[in-house]
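Typical record is below.
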Amino acid sequence: MWPFICQFIEKLFRETIEPAVRGANNHLSTFSFTKIDIGHQPLRINGVKVYTENVDKRQIILDLQISFVGNCEIDLEIKRYFCRAGVKSIQIHGTMRVILEPLIGDMPLIGALSLFFLRKPLLEINWTGLTNLLDVPGLNGLSDTIILDIISNYLVLPNRITVPLVSEVQIAQLRFPIPKGVLRIHFIEAQDLEGKDTYLKGIVKGKSDPYGIIRVGNQIFQSKVIKENLNPKWNEVYEALVYEHPGQELEIELFDEDPDKDDFLGSLMIDLIEVEKERLLDEWFTLDEVSKGKLHLKLEWLTLMPTADNLDKVLTSIRADKDQANDGLSSALLILYLDSARNLPVSSILVDTLLS
């Protein structure tokens, strides 16, 4: 299948990624791929998990542990600035979810195929000419790490690739599904964190300036920094849309802010199936990958209702908690699907480029 997968990837680069890059920044309006060769080494599937519980009977859900290490040749240019760069090798490791839905009574039995990563995969890119790219006006604030994050997040839920296998399938409903629920995260406090700041060349242990990074899919939140405190109190609230479960997790990492490189203070991963079952979790969690430290979280699972019958009750409840979040707590969810546009004006940047 690999040669045909490569054809699909090239089409994805040219028809989806290239227009997205052009539209992201005025300085990239002449961005294009001049060569796309993914190489002959196929990706490996190291494990497959099939879900049999909490699954709609008209769908099949697979989680694939994938690993790709390959030499490739991808060349790109920005004609406006006579700038060229490329990629000569890529590594990617992560959990890719494959959803086969809807199941139908005629061949090929499956109406469509959806692909996405549940969380940001490990991605490494060996660039050629990256400094040329970063010299383009408007891009000098970017870095290799930021570019990798942008690419990784493009592959992560709620972003997805949906391929229809029969003509009558409702592709928009599969590509932009309604969320399964909303996770309200009360990021409260921590205790007994490691002191990373040192004095007198490490002889005297000091405190830390802790903050947290919270991820659900490609939704990322960062807490405020609490200066010189090993028992910080944040008392912040975040709300994240949950599109897929089982399999999706809440990921939290704590760091000590430093002028050069921030130190790691521990991590935590919580399966959202457990939160949905309990509806409300208010617990102290022991931090992983460190010798000590605990994190106090309150997690609420909120189900989407098709009518506004309970809206007054919800509004009363969130008014009582109005000080918990900087921009307020949500009472409802607006889903907007942008279908198409017509008779748009011609871009002046494109005209300038054509004339030049």
About this structure: The domain at 181-321 is CATH 2.60.40.150 (Immunoglobulin-like).
